[in-house]
Recover the amino acids of this structure.
């Protein structure tokens, strides 16, 4: 296990080294990520200059929501965003190289394609979280802090799975479909506001199909003392069931792999 | 030990005619055609053998190699390499093989070669002492020296290929698969690569399976040649025996004085005689070289004679023709 971790750490360093070869580009991209993330933040800020609440949530509470989703997304995308290279790997037969190495296929794709410029996004989300923790007026307890942590961690798993699902489609189509981004970037944008604002139907969809509400809406109600019970507090854990269909599609795809060229 | 038993592999390929109309139509419904890449292919390769695998483009060479490497799963039949089924036990299987795809790099593009080697050591969990020994050896034999400190993207093709081969051998594989290892290399690099592969096979008894379009690779390296065409093994044996299957494989060029001499009945003319030169072909099992020379000596004033065997290049072209590949 320790040796395996060392390997992936080295993969990590190798990629960092490669990205650092183009230093200016690396820092400017990270800086760009940091700055563009603020535009979405200001979007919310200015909205709340006009109104005082969205569907019974205050500015501070929406901000908490926003920070959780942004952090989840930043982590999920840092690991999973690289999976967007899937179609290229498949079309050019680069997956062959990965298959002839005695290591997990997924980690071999994920590690070298880590996008560290997402650290900029993560830093911004952390800043927002720091502001939101007091602003949300949540009566913080250790349990609530744990739930918040679960929201972020399980959320990043969900986002990673979404990236994996979208990428796995390439096994069957050999190309990427931009409209599938609605499941990744789209979910991030949806998640900025408590999901109940989109109506009952949408909330059901985001509970049972793509379990975004399980890491956002339900545990948020728990944090805000608007709902009681373990059902709400532990909702993020249930969202992890989403790993199963994602892994299944990915595995089916690997088996379906046809390789390419000579 | 590699055993291939009754392997078949079929690809389903979407058919589509050119043009926008068909592109749109194919979005909604597709017609598929089946390509039988391999049909009931069987052969076995012993430990320490060096086998060349030839065939025209699209014959199924790469598919075979990919099945042996565990990249592809056959539709029918079984493949066993070193007692394992490659596509079932991928991780354990690939630990014991080395693969060089001539057209695809396994090194990290932007970092020095040595960094790639270090990472490969970690990927294969190569023992540090063994790793140092192998790197030292490979550096000497393949003359890597300074190359190790150079980023891959700045290497020439020949330099890169030497590094690729070294990279595939860091973990002491039992079997080495080479898919067109000399493609695009200059003459000097080709010779260096061939010499190295031969030595590897002789000294470490590494089994080598090689696909190539360069017949000189085959001549220089392999005793045994598998010829594949349209998904089936057409011949399996020594290069020399393969040559014997070409009937008229001796070519004789004579220079003479005066009128062109008549041909022996067992000869055919290859080129029209001109300027006192004539080229003929014949089958040495039906007409011996000495009889052929004697025939011309008796019919004309011979100035010069040269006899050559069919080149491997020509032979393969003829075989492809014969099998209508």
């Amino acid at each position: 296990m320790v040796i395996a971790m060392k390997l992936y750490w080295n993969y990590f360093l190798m990629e960092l080294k490669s990205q650092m070869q183009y230093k200016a580009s690396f820092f400017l991209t990270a800086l760009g990520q940091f700055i563009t993330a603020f535009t979405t933040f200001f979007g919310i800020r200015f909205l709340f200059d006009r109104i005082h609440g969205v569907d019974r949530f205050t500015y501070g509470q929406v901000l908490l929501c926003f920070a959780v989703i942004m952090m989840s997304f930043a982590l999920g995308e840092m690991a999973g965003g690289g999976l967007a290279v899937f179609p290229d790997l498949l079309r050019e037969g680069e997956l062959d190289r990965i298959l002839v190495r005695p290591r997990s296929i997924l980690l071999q794709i994920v590690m070298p394609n880590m996008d560290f410029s997402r650290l900029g996004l993560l830093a911004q989300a952390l800043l927002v979280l720091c502001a939101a923790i007091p602003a949300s007026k949540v009566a913080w307890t250790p349990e609530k802090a744990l739930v918040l942590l679960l929201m972020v961690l399980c959320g990043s798993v969900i986002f990673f799975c979404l990236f994996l699902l979208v990428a796995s489609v390439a096994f069957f189509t050999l190309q990427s479909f931009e409209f599938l981004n609605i499941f990744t970037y789209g979910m991030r944008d949806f998640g900025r506001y408590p999901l109940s604002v989109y109506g009952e139907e949408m909330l059901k969809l985001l509970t049972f199909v793509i379990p975004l509400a399980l890491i956002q809406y339900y545990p948020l109600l728990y944090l805000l003392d608007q709902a009681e019970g373990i059902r709400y507090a532990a909702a993020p854990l249930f969202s992890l069931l989403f790993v199963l269909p994602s892994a299944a599609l990915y595995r089916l795809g690997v088996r379906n792999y046809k390789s390419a060229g000579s | 030990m590699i055993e291939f038993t009754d392997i078949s592999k079929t690809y389903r390929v979407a058919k589509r005619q050119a043009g926008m109309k068909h592109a749109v139509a194919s979005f909604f419904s597709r017609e598929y055609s089946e390509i039988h890449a391999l049909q009931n292919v069987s052969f076995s390769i012993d430990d320490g053998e060096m086998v060349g695998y030839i065939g025209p483009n699209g014959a199924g060479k790469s598919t075979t190699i990919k099945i042996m490497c565990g990249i592809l799963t056959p539709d029918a039949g079984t493949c066993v390499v070193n007692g394992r089924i490659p596509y079932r036990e991928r991780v354990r299987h690939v630990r014991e093989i080395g693969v060089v795809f001539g057209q695809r790099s396994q090194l990290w593009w932007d970092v020095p070669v040595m960094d790639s080697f270090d990472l490969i050591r970690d990927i294969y969990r190569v023992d540090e002492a063994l790793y140092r020994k192998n790197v030292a050896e490979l550096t000497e034999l393949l003359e890597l020296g300074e190359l190790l400190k150079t980023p891959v993207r700045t290497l020439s093709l020949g330099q890169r290929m030497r590094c690729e081969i070294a990279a595939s051998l860091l973990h002491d594989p039992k079997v080495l698969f080479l898919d067109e290892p000399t493609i695009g290399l200059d003459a000097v690099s080709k010779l260096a690569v061939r010499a190295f592969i031969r030595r590897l096979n002789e000294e470490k008894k590494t089994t080598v399976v090689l696909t190539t379009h360069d017949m000189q690779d085959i001549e220089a390296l392999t005793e045994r040649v598998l010829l594949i065409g349209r998904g089936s093994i057409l011949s399996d044996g020594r290069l020399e025996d393969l040559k014997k299957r070409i009937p008229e494989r001796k070519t004789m060029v004579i220079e003479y004085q005066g009128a062109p001499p008549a041909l022996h009945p067992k000869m055919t003319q290859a080129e029209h005689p001109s300027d006192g030169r004539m080229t003929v072909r014949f089958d040495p099992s039906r007409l011996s070289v000495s009889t052929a020379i004697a025939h011309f000596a008796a019919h004309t004033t011979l100035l010069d004679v040269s006899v050559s065997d069919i080149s491997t290049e020509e032979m393969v072209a003829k075989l492809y023709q014969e099998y209508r590949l």
